[in-house]
TrEMBL record:
Domain of life according to the entry: Bacteria
Every TonB-dependent receptor-like beta-barrel domain range: 231-603
Protein family according to the UniProt entry: Belongs to the TonB-dependent receptor family.
Record GO cellular component, one term: cell outer membrane
Organism: Thermomonas haemolytica
Record domain TonB-dependent receptor plug: where: 50-153
Region forming the signal peptide: 1-27
Membrane topology: Multi-pass membrane protein
UniProt name for this protein: Vitamin B12 transporter
Keyword Ion transport appears in the UniProt entry: yes
Amino acid sequence: MQSKLHRLQLATLPLALASTLPLAAHADDAKTLDRVIVTATRTPTTVDAALAAVEVIDRDQIDASGAHSLPELLRGRAGIDIVNQGGLGKLSTLFLRGTESDHTLFLVDGVRIGSPTSGLASIQDIPLELIERIEIVRGPRSSLYGADAIGGVIQIFTRRDAAQGTHARARIAAGSHGLREASAGLDLRTARGGVGLDVAHQRTDGINACTGYYDPLTWNGAGCFIVPGTQLDRDGYRNHSANLRADFTPAEGWQLDAHAFRATGHNDYDGSYVDNSDIVQQVVGGSVRWTPSDAVQLKLSAGRDTDDSSNYLGHVFSNRFATHRDSASLQGDFTLAKGRLLSAGFDWLRDAANVSDPWAPFARTRGNRGLFVQYQGESAVAAGMQNLQLALRHDDNDQFGGHTTGSLAWGRDLGGGWRLTASHGTAFKAPTFNELYYPGFSNPLLRPETARSSELSLARTGDGWHLQANAYQTRIDDLIAYDAALGKPANIDSARIRGLELTGDAQWGEWTARGQLGWLQTRNESAGSNHGKWLPRRSPRSARLDLERAAGAWSFGLTGIAQAARWDDVANTLRVGGYATLDARLSWRFARGWTLQGNLTNLFDRPYQTSAYYPQPGREFTLSLRWQGD
């Protein structure tokens, strides 16, 4: 009976979504749809002019969502599959448009983040209370950012208040499974610059995060490796974080910026070799921008990302993965004429890893240098504007030599609010240090993965509403996968990915709706027994609907998320069932600057998993109190 209800919810949520999107808005306070973004082109542009499928999640949406983590905020969005291993703070991987979990490039305030050993960004350790907005760019961006951006780029911008004066904020929250949260922030800003600081604390007793077990004959358990009858306990998590930033305009045409983010924490989970970790995530960066005229701008930026995990079995040390990613960039933007912009630059990157392990220690470094050039042009046509974007990049990698990537994108207004865009791009991804060097489980002969993607989009914007359809295809060659015959990773696979995304938002009166639908088809095209199989951990169908209503001091919201069943292994023998969940929230602004909010997630207490053997929490509640000073 329960599975029938899941299928019913999965089928009816898209219908509800489709019925809400065409409603037009006529409210005077409707938010504009042309918000400025920078990630898609490395230069400021607007969402409606971008020649890529982009999505912006701003601070208001983050507050309204009641989400406790970045993975929770992103789940169910078009083209995004989140795989979480046991709730808040546990390992979370993101698959963007059917590509691998290490095929998405993550940036924090322009600084590239991620572990050179695993290739993953620890998105579960970046607190939402320190985030101002998130820009999601779907589709390859190697022609601008180099390696890793096969599926797209997600950039996180930390909090800061742009208005002059003193701005303070604070929040406390408590909820299910012993959840405790507290945060506070302060910005001081004048006409010449400003400084700011935000701090946050999060702690939960957690749930029993793993239901798998250790089978010495089959290695069953998907990484849990629990001896039957042991570790049937809650797996807690705590995180302490801070973000410091400053900017200054010393003279006309000059802008200085510096920022530092650091999160430390402790994570408990289940395992027979490692069952708890101390983690450090740190991003430090700065930039100098010089604008001598309206036609010229130069920017020099640099940063360091630190991803450090010390792992234990009880109190006994097991291993430590300490990694650093240093980066620097020089970019020039030159306005050739009205509507014609030329950008060129140089990127430098150095990855370093030091793995302390009694059985498998190693230390490696690798550098990369990249040159890129981009042209953006627009011209008037009968129906509006026509846009063109050309980008070309060459990377020189210490280990894998030269790689050239490029992209071409075109867009045209068709009249009546319609807009058509088309694009094609190439990308590549270098193997991670673990894939190359981890003793006993690596292959130093691996080649970089390469990809080519094409996309066609059609959008229409009306009075307070917007609809967009994106169809895309990606082919990946030399896809790195674990080869059971060799007992290590190998370039044995190629893959074809096809997808369709439907997104929309609308405002009418006091109502706001945002909807997203996704269809995905992945095909393993490698020779052998897995030919034609689906790539693991990607759901072929997904839907998300966010519905909000404001009425004076009160606001109410619902979020429905549905995903179809997926396979958890390359051979398509381990199935993870589909699910549908409904979240509800209610907030009350009872005094100036004060808001009380209650959230119920997984309202109907549906049991589900996103990864085999790792259950997700059932019904949870949270009560939070937020204060925003003038």
